[in-house]
Amino acid sequence: MDVFETERAVVVRAEIPGVRGEDIRVNVDGQLLRIAGVRKVPAHFDVQRLHQMEIAFGPFEREVRISIAFDRDGVSAHLEDGFLSVTLPKPEPLRRQVTVETE
C-alpha cells in the first residue's frame, strides 16, 4: 500500500490483484480509511493436491490513518489492473474578503 499527497489530494494506492470491484468495500470513519474485501478461490480449479500456495484467498482488511484534513464527501475509489486508488481530496481553502472599518 502506498500513501502519497498531491497538491489537491491524498491518494492511497493498494495492490489487490484478482479481486473484483464488487468484492471491495471502502469506508471512511473520521481519520481512518478502511479497505476490506475478499479474494475468492477461482471456481474453475479442481485442485486434487496442493504443492505450493503463496496467493492468499479469503477476507482481507487494511486500515490507514490519514492525518491530513480531507473532504469526506468527495472521496472516490477506482480499481484498474489490480490496483485500487482511493482519492481523498483536500478541502478548498476558506477565503473571504475582510472589510476594514474606520472611525
Please name the defining characteristics of this protein.
103 residues; Immunoglobulin-like; three-stranded antiparallel beta sheet; 44% strand
Write a brief caption for the model.
The protein has no helices and 7 strands. The chain is mainly beta. A hairpin with a 2-residue loop joins strand 3 and strand 4 (32-39).
Summarize the SSE layout with pairings.
Elements: E1 2-5, E2 9-15, E3 24-29, E4 32-39, E5 58-65, E6 76-80, E7 83-89
Antiparallel strand pairs: 1-2, 2-7, 3-4, 4-5, 6-7
Question: In words, what does this structure look like?
Answer:
This protein has a domain at about 1-40 and about 55-90: Immunoglobulin-like (Sandwich), CATH 2.60.40.790. Helix content is about 0%, strand content about 45%. It is built from no helices and seven strands. The model has no long low-confidence stretch (mean pLDDT about 90). With about 100 residues, the protein is mainly beta.
